[in-house]
Design brief:
The structure is a homotetramer.
Chain A (H helix, E strand, L loop, with lengths): L3 H17 L19 H26 L6 H15 L1 H10 L4 H29 L4 H6 L3 H16 L4 H16 L3 H8 L1
Helix pairs in contact in A: 1-2, 1-3, 2-4, 2-8, 3-5, 4-5, 5-7, 5-8, 7-8
Catalytic activity (chains A, B, C, D): K(+)(in) = K(+)(out)
Protein name (chains A, B, C, D): DUF1211 domain-containing protein
Membrane topology (chains A, B, C, D): Multi-pass membrane protein
Chain lengths: ~190, ~190, ~190, ~190
Amino acid sequence: MGKTRIEAFSDGVVAIIITIMVLELRAPHGSELDDLLPLAPTFLTYILSFIYVGVYWNNHHHLFHVVQRIGGSVLWANLHLLFWLSLVPFVTRWMGENHFTPWPTALYGVVLAMAAIAYYLLTRALLAQHGENAKLAAALGRDVKGKLSVVAYLFAIALSFVLPAVSLAIYAIVALVWLIPDRRIEHVIER
Amino acid sequence: MGKTRIEAFSDGVVAIIITIMVLELRAPHGSELDDLLPLAPTFLTYILSFIYVGVYWNNHHHLFHVVQRIGGSVLWANLHLLFWLSLVPFVTRWMGENHFTPWPTALYGVVLAMAAIAYYLLTRALLAQHGENAKLAAALGRDVKGKLSVVAYLFAIALSFVLPAVSLAIYAIVALVWLIPDRRIEHVIER
Amino acid sequence: MGKTRIEAFSDGVVAIIITIMVLELRAPHGSELDDLLPLAPTFLTYILSFIYVGVYWNNHHHLFHVVQRIGGSVLWANLHLLFWLSLVPFVTRWMGENHFTPWPTALYGVVLAMAAIAYYLLTRALLAQHGENAKLAAALGRDVKGKLSVVAYLFAIALSFVLPAVSLAIYAIVALVWLIPDRRIEHVIER
Amino acid sequence: MGKTRIEAFSDGVVAIIITIMVLELRAPHGSELDDLLPLAPTFLTYILSFIYVGVYWNNHHHLFHVVQRIGGSVLWANLHLLFWLSLVPFVTRWMGENHFTPWPTALYGVVLAMAAIAYYLLTRALLAQHGENAKLAAALGRDVKGKLSVVAYLFAIALSFVLPAVSLAIYAIVALVWLIPDRRIEHVIER
């Protein structure tokens, strides 16, 4: 099966997720600069989530670039990833509106961790169809960054109940680490 | 006529339907775990609807894969299917917010049944253009699963007024049955 | 310039317009059948608007099928059409919520008329780039149906202030006339 | 890397941005013409923002038309542009609802200026990958219009606190100047 439609559908869903988050930035009633201040936590969370969803789109783009065949298991693994990403606007709102209190901060991490695990499962489903010795396997390597991210999320979730500000810093640092595009796959493509 | 644009348009509409449902998961005002509890029915319905819309996208993807020509009747049969799918967010919300009371549970089933019938009509419109002896006819076969689903929906609709919990279980079981991708079409493609 | 992206962008905008209208169908708080009744006018208007937007997508699909080149003027004529279509959800809501009172019914017609004029201007912009003797000119013909539609809309707008129910009937009849796909273009493609 | 998916994703995000703005045009409760009047500032701002987002889509379309290769830096420069464009619905609402008071008018200009700078950075990222002597460099030229626009925005932002109406006029004039498609790139394509 071709990969065009699964790419197009994923692009559509991710484009909507990244854009509807801005609907939660409700314009304040007053028209002074001070009226914008209460929006600051929501706005900062919006930026963080925008980067995360952007990172997923970027990695998804790179991942499917080295892929040729798509089977039923990949379709479902992909929908599973999109499901967890679709919850990002919800946890963004909850964390932003509650000014980074413990539970919302923890749940934000849970959704990030589940999305990371879903992405990992997607790479496994693709590998199962392409064989361990394919270009894809070389491109993914041991995926140290992916595995460390999940560890970081789990650590941040636990920390949410003690120091939510540190959890938030961890989410931000992991996002920045991922901002650097996946050179491994780019190198394989160049070769 | 080519099938690229009808696929792209359907992908767009389905991507929006599957994503805007999450807008109904309104972040609660409190920031405790207990504040999330009232959202549980809406969240469970969201998962169910996400799977259903995902199933339709998957089957739509498989269906158009074995199709070559698109005529006017297919365009309208496809829009008719998208119309019923577009009502999924509405019935999802109504059933979730009313905690699976009779009428919302029944209406959810009506929309599922109408979508299934619309999908059937779409396959008929495609068959009419490709001839009964085409690859498509072989792939669709007698469509026992599709027909049994409609029977299950009708049964669940009637049951909504007596045992809505059982209706809900039927919707969930049918969704899980469909999670298994349509091997018939995949087999025809492989051959 | 290629036409792929203008088609993809138009498909995206039209897919969003046709889908976000359902967000206006707000689930009622009660869970009885009677609680759905107040939604009836909004639901009927939703069906009417769904058909109209579907008709525009269908005709847009047919139109660009016989087109080869895209220039600056076509890009803007297309955005102009999308602008008027983007107002359909707004007038749908206003007319539906106000139970077909004069002004909302008239404004609904104004948006339909402006969209029809915008579509006509788009065909002119395309003709200007392809020459009067092209396949496109043959396919469009004298466009009697398009011109009569505008006349019908103008008549219905005037009538809104006296007999809004008749205006609504006119909108519905014009929609049904357009449900029949544009055989003229299909004939030219077949030849 | 191919450019198809980055184009498709950008088309999706821009299509959503341009369409969800209309959700802010909330249908009034009354059904008289007078009930529409309070919406006039929001509607005018909607038209202005629709033109701006349309201009960005048009220029993006032209820009990627003369581009062959896409690397990691371009993916991020493009997401950066989409981020600022995603804030257009927010500032549109704030400015429209507050009837062009100083701060909202200034913030509208800030988002326009940041989007213009992001677009400039995107052209730099593309130039860095294609070399200064490529078709792209010839097409972009010295980009006088782009640089003058940023100057105009900065001037309008400062003026917002004294004469917001003049700032608004500047935004409108810049939009109209950009309505004229980028002939430079079209000329290079024709050659």
